[in-house]
Amino acid sequence: MKKISIFIIAGIMVAGTACKKSFLDRYPQDAISPQLFFKTEEDLALYVNGMLTLPGTGIYYDDQSSDNMATTAAIEVKSVMTGSPSSQTLTSGWDWSRLRNLNYFLANYNGAAVTQDVKDHYVGLVRYYRALFYFGMVRRYSDVPWYGTPINPSDTALLYKARDPRALVVDSIMADLSFAASHIRSSVPSGTPNAWAAKALFARIALYEATWRRYHPELNLQSTAGRFLDSALLVTQDIMNNGGFSIYNTGKPDQDYAALFNSQDLMSNKEMILVHPYDASKSVSSGGTGTVFGDYEQSPARDLVQTYLMDDGTRFTDQPGYAQMQFVQEFQHRDRRMAQTLAAPGFIKAGDTKPYIQRLNKNFSGYHQVKGLTNSTDAILNGSVDVPAYRYAETLLIYAEAKAEQGTLTQADLDKSVNLLRARVQLPAMNLATVTGNIDVTQAAAYPDVSGAMKGAILEIRRERRVELAMEGFRYDDLMRWHAGSLLTRQPEGIYFPGLGKYDLTGDGIPDIILIDKAVEIPTDDQKEKNSLGVNLIYYRAGSFGDNVTVYMKNGTSGGALVTDVTPRTFLDPKYYYRPIPYAQLVLNPNLKQIFDWK
Prior knowledge:
By secondary structure, the protein is of the alpha/beta class.
């Protein structure tokens, strides 16, 4: 079934009172009596269902924090790099109310008159959610207090606890997920985590932590990275060998990848480990994804466009004159995932009969996103498209990256992981000898920390991960764990134009737009030049950033890539890989101290 029922017990989610102990809200002991409530499996299910959290359509917007996107939104990392951030300006994130509710269950479930395996299933779910919660805290703050039990307001030792070391917190996260993976049922209601979802999260966090420790010397934890790689491999091999999952491939290389992000029913798709199902006809609507297209806040960056390979497996950045290629040429003979992620020349929007002509605007790249876009005029359909929470494709990428980082990657490993993704879009298989013997200088420059015999393989697996998971919200975390924050200082660029003049944007060889000098007025419709189809050209005044024009080009009227921003960006290393504890919390709890030079 498609619909999810999410139950919220009245009073359970109530916020703690605003007092001097508000940095960690009281557990809800006055909202529900464990002696009266936690009695049956229905009670346990009711409470735990209230804790359900799944990624939704927001994943298609989350790459705004990364180099995959240009954005006009007030994205935190952008504000950090262009402003004067401090603990008094970065005040979000230090919220413990969810943990309070999770720990309250763990302290009170045992009185239920059910078998131990029933108890363990629900405990496993709650520990899965707690691991997810703490993973978010570690990603943001690194060292944080670990609370494994509800806090009694009179327990000042816990209320005024200092930060615990990252190593302790992450080990506790992995212990939670180990229990969850071993005790959550494999068969669960649609849209809720099962044992395989817990394993998928385990593998995700294990790889994240392994690479963070390897590439972040400020933690002094490099020597422990290997055991997390081992854990990631152990779990991914379990999923690959025993989960029954497979890459969705019906032999339609121009459609199968896109189908993962515009389907009304992913529940039967063998690539899906966990799905967030929607059905607008039953009042469970995603709200639609119309704004991902690129006319509101976000637009894909040219750096992402240049990352996709040619359809013969060669590098686009090895093509003569690639940096000056225009829009139509850029899309020719490319990895088929590119045209299923970005609007290619000839793309037709729902309700139209003619190809879409890229809309140009100041601060936007000119590229448009179609991944996650429901290209329909049907409101019910638009709100009923399922969202992947965990894809088997990610598991395969984790496996390949962990193997490469471990230094044990073989051609057979690539063939049962990355090359399955390439086969879906009929892209030639990655050859280990080739990628290790012919290292891409563009990738190497982007990731200077990568070294060793597997350097070329690691770089190409990172490319594969960027392309396969583009616009699913992974890129920012990947840049952070790879110690590649400096890439965020590059200003996102857009479509390249060699100068003023007429341009075809639909791929039929007939001009669609004309760029004119900023000093020239756009004529009225009856005075506009027509193309050979008898259609008025679309006029844009072009110039340099800040001019009174619609199109900003890098070299002004002499052309260049579209410019989306010029504000200088600075990424302080290691400081900006972390966030400060909000200042108000330091006042409430003097035992909390800032790290990495945050004030």
